[in-house]
């Protein structure tokens, strides 16, 4: 699957699209995807791969599009806590940290 994600990202770049790659860099508890899981996003919001099994992909796409706009990588964290009860989180509990970077 990882090769498919990188091949798709390379194809998008070859078509002139901007691309960002999101990679799971840390997990705690019952995170649904292991460290190293990846998702590629193009500037139109298309995506391939997964960093959470559907829990946070929309928020990661949003951050990836911002990264493509400003070129700044981002480290984003998601989880469930009392302070974040109404924000995006993992339905299964646990936490995940995702690094998002533009692909040149």
UniProtKB/TrEMBL annotation:
Residues 12-79 form the XdhC- CoxI domain. InterPro entries: MoCofactor_Util/Proc (IPR052698), XdhC_CoxI (IPR003777). It comes from the Bacteria. It holds the Pfam family XdhC_CoxI. PANTHER family: ALDEHYDE OXIDOREDUCTASE MOLYBDENUM COFACTOR ASSEMBLY PROTEIN, MOLYBDENUM COFACTOR INSERTION CHAPERONE PAOD. This is Xanthine dehydrogenase. It comes from Azospirillum argentinense. The lineage of its organism: Bacteria, Pseudomonadati, Pseudomonadota, Alphaproteobacteria, Rhodospirillales.
């Amino acid at each position: 699957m990882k090769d498919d994600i990188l091949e798709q990202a390379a194809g998008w770049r070859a078509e002139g699209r901007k691309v960002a790659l999101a990679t799971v860099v840390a997990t705690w508890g019952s995170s649904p995807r292991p460290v190293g899981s990846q998702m590629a996003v193009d500037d139109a919001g298309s995506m391939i791969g997964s960093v959470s099994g559907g829990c946070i992909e929309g928020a990661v796409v949003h951050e990836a599009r911002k990264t493509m706009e400003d070129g700044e990588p981002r480290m984003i964290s998601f989880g469930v806590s009392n302070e974040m009860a109404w924000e995006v989180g993992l339905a299964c509990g646990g936490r995940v940290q995702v690094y998002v970077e533009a692909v040149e």
